[in-house]
C-alpha cells in the first residue's frame, strides 16, 4: 500500500505519485456523486453556469491537493531515510492517520455540500457548539452514498495505489525523476490556476471545490475581545472633536434640510381601536428586495400594502442580516467593529435601547420567532435581555419535536404555528402583544417547501420567486389566523426585508452589487383602521426610520438615542443614509435621489441617480458632481464616527449619546481596527451554518446572511 509504505518493487517517486493518483480517484468519485445527486434528487444543475471550456477545470483544486500530498509522501520517505530507517514505522503511522483523516473529512464535507451546497468550513464547525451536536449531526445524515464513498476511500484507494506505482515504474515516458515531478507540477498547478481564473464566482453547489482546500481558504481566526477604551482613544486622537457630532450629516440636495410628509394620514375614527391599544407584529423577511414583491410572487404581502403605508424608496443599512437587524430594532448602525458585538460589549447586555424594551415598558408581552437558528451569527445576542420575553428559533422547535425542513431550519409554517399559539394565549389573557417573526426563506439556496410552485425551477430567479412565494404563503396563514381571531384590525403589521438579493443577474447572493435589487427592501406598515386605503411614500427612508415610525403609530415616544426619524411627522429631517454592500466592499450614501458610492478597495467613486428600478450614472458635466468631494469626506468621517459610538458605549457601559431625529450612516472600514473578515464569506452565494439542537443536524445548516 503505497500510501502507508514504499512498495518493494517501486521507487519512492512512483509510490508518492501513485498515492496521489489513487486519492484523486476518490475525490473525483465524490464530485461525480455530488453532481449526480444534485441532478437526480434536487433538480439542480451545478454546472449550468460553467462555460463549456471550463468543465475539466472543476478538478483543478483536487489536482493541486494531490500534488501537495505526493510531495508530502515523498518527504516522509526522505525523513525516514535520513534516520537509517528508525523512523520508518512512525512515518507509516503518520501517513496512515493522515490518509484516514483525509477520507473522513472529505466524506463529511461531501455531506455538507450535499445538504446545502458548500463544503465544510470552520464557521460551520464553530456553530456546531460541541462534539455531541456534531456527532448527532453527522449520524443524522449517514446513508448509502457517504458509506460507499467511505468504503471506497478506506479500502479501494490503498489497494489501488501499489498497482498504479508498479505501472508507473514500467513507464517509458518521463523517465527522469525531475521530468516526472515537473510534469505533475505543471499539470496540477496549471489546472488549479485556470480553475481560479475561469470558474471564480461561479456557484456549482460545491462540485468544483476540494474539501481541504476550501476549508483552508475559508479559514478565519476566531473573533477576540478588543480593548475598547484604547481604540476609542486612538480614534479620538485621529478625528478629534468631529466625533462629538450628535447625528450624521444633513442632506446636501434638500434646501433647508427638511422634507414634508408626502402621504395622507389621519387619526383613527372615534370608537375605533386607539393607537395605544394596537398589538404589533413585525415580519422581517430574509433576503427580500422590493422589486420582487409583486402580486404574482407575494400576494399576501401586497394585500397588506393595499391596507397600509408602503415606503417605495426604502433602503437597508447593510447587506448582512445581523447588522441590518440592529438597524431595524435599535434605530442605529452596527458597523464592522473587528469582533462580534457580544465580545465588544464583554458579553453584557447591549446598552442601547431596543424596540422591544420600549414596548415592554408600555405593557406589551413580547415574543421572537425565527424559522432559522437564533445562534447563527449570534443573532440571539441582539435580542437577549432586550425586552423579549419569549424567544423561539429552530433549535427550540427541533427540541420540541418539529422536523428539520432543510439545512437552515424548520418550515416557515411551523414558525407561524408556534407564533399563533403564543398570540392566542395572549388574547385569552387580555394582553397586548408584540410578536417578531424572522423568516429564513427566501435566503439562498432559495428553498421552497410548498407543494405547488408557481414558477418553474429552471433559473436562479425563478427558484428565488418560488421561495419568496412560499414565505408569502406562511404570512397568509398568519393573516388568516388574525382575521379569524378578530385581531386583524387591532394589530399593526410591519413588513420589512433585512436586505435585498441579487437574483436577476449571476452570480446570485447579497453584498455583491450596488443596485436597487440589493439595497431597496419592502417596508410596509399595515392596519385597516389606521390605513383604510393603501398609501405610498416616495421619501427616501432607511431601516433606522422603522422603529421610530412604529412608536409613533402606537402613540409612544421614541428614545432620544435612536437616530431614525418619525415618518408621520409633518416636517421630516432630510439626512444622508448610508448603506454597506459587504462582499464587494462598497459604501453607498443615499441622499434624496442621489447615491454616492465609494469602493473601499480601490478608492474609486461614482455618483448615481436613483430611479424606480435602476441606478443611472450622473453625467460628468452635471452640477451635482461638485458634491462628490463632500460626500467622500462625510463617508470617510462616518466610518470612524459610527465605530467610535460603539467603542464609547462599550467602554462607558452606557447607551450611545446623541439622538434626535438625525439620519444614519453605514460602516466604512477604519484604519484603527483591522477588522476581521466577516463571518459571511465574500463569495457570490454566501452560505454559513447555524447551530442546531442536540440530535439535530447542525452540519446541515447553511446560510450566509
Explain the overall architecture.
The protein is α/β, with parallel strands linked by helices. It is built from 20 helices and 15 strands. It has helices at 12-42, 60-82, 88-116, 122-127, 131-140, 144-169, 177-199, 211-217, 228-239, 299-306, 321-330, 341-344, 355-361, 379-383, 394-399, 412-428, 460-484, 516-519, 546-553, 628-652, and strands spanning 258-260, 279-285, 308-315, 365-370, 390-392, 433-438, 491-497, 523-526, 535-542, 571-573, 577-581, 586-591, 594-599, 605-610, 615-617. The strands form three sheets. Strands 5-4-6-2-7-8-3-9 form an eight-stranded mixed beta sheet, with helices on both faces. A five-stranded antiparallel beta sheet has the order 11-12-13-14-15. A hairpin with a 4-residue loop joins β11 (577-581) and β12 (586-591). α1 (12-42) runs antiparallel to α6, α9 packs antiparallel against α20 (628-652) and α16 (412-428) packs parallel to α17 (460-484). It is globular. The two termini are 45 Å apart. Residues 1-9, 129-133 and 658-704 have low confidence and may be disordered.
Secondary-structure topology with pairs:
Blueprint: H1 12-42, H2 60-82, H3 88-116, H4 122-127, H5 131-140, H6 144-169, H7 177-199, H8 211-217, H9 228-239, E1 258-260, E2 279-285, H10 299-306, E3 308-315, H11 321-330, H12 341-344, H13 355-361, E4 365-370, H14 379-383, E5 390-392, H15 394-399, H16 412-428, E6 433-438, H17 460-484, E7 491-497, H18 516-519, E8 523-526, E9 535-542, H19 546-553, E10 571-573, E11 577-581, E12 586-591, E13 594-599, E14 605-610, E15 615-617, H20 628-652
Parallel strand pairs: 2-6, 2-7, 3-9, 4-5, 4-6
Antiparallel strand pairs: 1-10, 3-8, 7-8, 11-12, 12-13, 13-14, 14-15
